[in-house]
Amino acid sequence: MAHYAPCGGLRRKLGNVLAALRWSALALGLACTALAVLAGARIAPTSYVLELAPPFVAYGEHAYNTRLPVLGRPPLVAPSDGKERSGASQVELREDGVPIGPAHEAHTKIVDVGGGAYSHWGETLYFSASDNTDPNTNGLRYTLEVPLLLPSEWWTLFAAGALVGGAIWLSDRRARARVFFVTWATCAFVGGTLLLVNLFGLFFPRDLPTRFASRDNDTTLDHAEAQAALGAARRDFLAGMIDDAAFLDAVTAAVNQRMTNVHQRFVDEEHAMRLDARENWLLAALNHDGRYDNYEFQDPGRALRRGLGTCGAQSITLLRLLAEDGIDGQLWGSGVHVVARVTSPDGQVFVLDPDYGVTLRGEPTELREDPARVREAYLGRRQATSDDVLPVIQKHYAQADPPDLLPLEALVGQRYDAKFFHGLDPLEFERVAYSAKWGLPLLLLLPGLLRLLSRRRRAQRS
User: Is the pTM of this model over 0.90?
Assistant: First the structure.
């Protein structure tokens, strides 16, 4: 006689319901994850350019303001500064396509000082022209680069959906096994690919200076020769065989003879300073909005290895090298040229120009009063021609205003946008990025290695 188990049908129905819930939860989790990924990649453009049209309203001596339209494109937003959110705005003001600033300035400073300072406050832009002229009549074009961001509430919603869906799905043992296998295989593939990219870049580095014509003294040393020259100068200096002036001249000459100026007169390639994947795949991935198209290395070893940079980049490299020997200095920029101003250990002040290989003793204000000495120092260099040097002398060293000195600690906010370095010091950010370029691939390969070791142990026990 057949016996029926009334509970059997109920169990089957309950199992089907649970299976349906798991599949629904998987769909929910995948949908939320996909939405988060798409939002992170920004379905709308990462940023867009807003043309600012006059008339601009005068707001004091140097400041002007203009009412802005709604900048966001739902669900993406473009936050502005305000009483409760100082520094929230990420818009970038450009004058004839060239970024000006600094941003987030106090309105009183924009009025009193100007010089390109601006503030995106609420629905209004307060700004000044870089030369403090009237933007209504100076003939210059003003635009805003507007980044679009996803509100944090959306990220919270997506993360919650993905976590709930994933937790329900993983409650099934077979589902867990499949998910773990796919995760292991994906990590191994991605980690292995990135490791191969790193190895390719290590054995086949990009050597830019050998591909470009430059001035006579630029790039006459390769990387190894430049490092050897720096090492010899440091040894002689520490041994007391050369004085401060000779040491500063030797370091300046080594940077000059290794690095090519990236100016279009000497380097015929657009974005020659852009980092590609073989140099650092992480920074190349973060460059989705072009922020690192003209990346200036902060580590002097990397800067010399590439051998390419603007006058400012070469001066930063020089200052970082001297900082390793305890010699402090600042950038001295004038809008047409950038050099380094340093104080030697014996208290003397020097102006160093690694772009031309020139070393001058004296404060910037003293050099302004002695143009003949400056001219003689520059024209005494074999690489220099009057057409190349005279504009530098006339426009840089003859500045009537007090020199604008910028220490390395203040590069962020003055020379660089803070968002480019994610809250870190530029040198610290670069070190983290170059450690992560090797560390992350190895971390992704770790689950696969542990799985293989676990399987081998089980095989040995059986």
Answer: no
